[in-house]
């Protein structure tokens, strides 16, 4: 694929997985905002599209072979198995850990940052609840329907609901980034505080990959029949 300023960023990420390194570095939303053209996404961030395209081309051509799995050419069953193993299963372990750490940091250090730490704990807790419900719906209803060959019209309403969930999760992740100051670890942070910041940064990265696979690869494939 020849990448131009009119190419949707979700398509770039799907066909050139290594490009996500550049997109993430510039905080270009390629998951929920995957339908947006590269030119529009760059303009919104105050970036030169030609410069970003050149970075993407360098990343693609000089890649070391990692992260190059083309999920857009895999079957829906393979994509679903990958999503569950790579994202759902680890999230079910990581979300309770992050929730507990956020509550602990707020309880112990909330007096130092009363405007951010309690709100951060509440945001992480709400995101955990939403994601756990969301993953259960996918695994119990939507994914089985896809693998059983359900008609696109039957799945469409549930897919729309899931994509709305993704939008809300994205907003929560944006709030978490703001509350953590772009995950810049404070000088006075204890070990738990530091671990929380690093864990939340990793959560954002993996959630972007996760949502991208569903919004820009799996769901369009299913809806296209």
Pairing-aware structural class of the strands and helices? mainly alpha
**Beta-strand content bin:** under 5%
Low-confidence stretches: none
Write down the overall geometry: globular
Terminal-residue CA separation: 23 Å
Q: What would you report as the Rg, rounded to the nearest angstrom?
A: 18 Å
Tally of individual domains: 2
Number of strands: 0
Order of H and E elements: HHHHHHHH
Mean pLDDT: 92
Q: Helicity level, as a percent range?
A: over 70%
Number of helices: 8
Largest sheet: none
Folded structure, characterized:
With 225 residues, the chain is mostly helical. It has 2 domains: 9-61, no CATH class; 74-223. The chain has 8 helices and no strands. It has helices spanning 9-15, 19-25, 38-45, 49-61, 76-109, 117-147, 152-179, 191-223. Helix 2 (19-25) crosses helix 4 (49-61) and helix 5 packs antiparallel against helix 6 (117-147). The two termini are 23 Å apart. The mean pLDDT is 92.
Topology diagram in text:
Elements: H1 9-15, H2 19-25, H3 38-45, H4 49-61, H5 76-109, H6 117-147, H7 152-179, H8 191-223
Helix pairs in contact: 1-8, 2-4, 5-6, 5-8, 6-7, 7-8
Summarize the structure.
This protein is an all-alpha fold and 225 residues long.
Fill in the keyword field for this structure:
225 residues; mainly alpha; 2 domains; 72% helix; 0% strand; globular
């Amino acid at each position: 694929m020849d990448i131009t300023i009119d190419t949707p960023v979700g398509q770039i990420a799907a066909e050139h997985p290594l490009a996500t390194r550049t997109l993430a570095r510039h905080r270009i939303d390629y998951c929920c905002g995957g339908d947006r053209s590269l030119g529009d996404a760059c303009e919104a961030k105050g970036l030169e599209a030609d410069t970003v395209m050149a970075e993407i081309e360098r990343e693609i051509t000089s890649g070391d072979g990692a992260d190059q799995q083309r999920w857009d050419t895999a079957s829906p069953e393979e994509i679903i198995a990958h999503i569950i193993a790579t994202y759902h299963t680890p999230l079910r372990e990581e979300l309770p850990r992050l929730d507990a750490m956020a509550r602990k940091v707020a309880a112990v250090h909330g007096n130092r940052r009363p405007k951010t730490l309690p709100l951060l704990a509440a945001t992480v807790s709400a995101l955990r609840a939403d994601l756990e419900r969301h993953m259960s719906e996918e695994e119990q209803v939507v994914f089985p329907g896809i693998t059983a060959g359900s008609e696109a019209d039957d799945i469409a309403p549930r897919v729309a609901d899931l994509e709305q969930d993704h939008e809300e999760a994205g907003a929560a992740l944006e709030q978490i980034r703001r509350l953590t100051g772009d995950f810049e670890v404070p000088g006075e942070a204890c070990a738990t505080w530091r671990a929380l910041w690093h864990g939340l940064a990793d959560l954002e990265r993996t959630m972007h990959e996760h949502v991208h696979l569903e919004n820009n690869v799996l769901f369009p494939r299913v809806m296209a029949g």
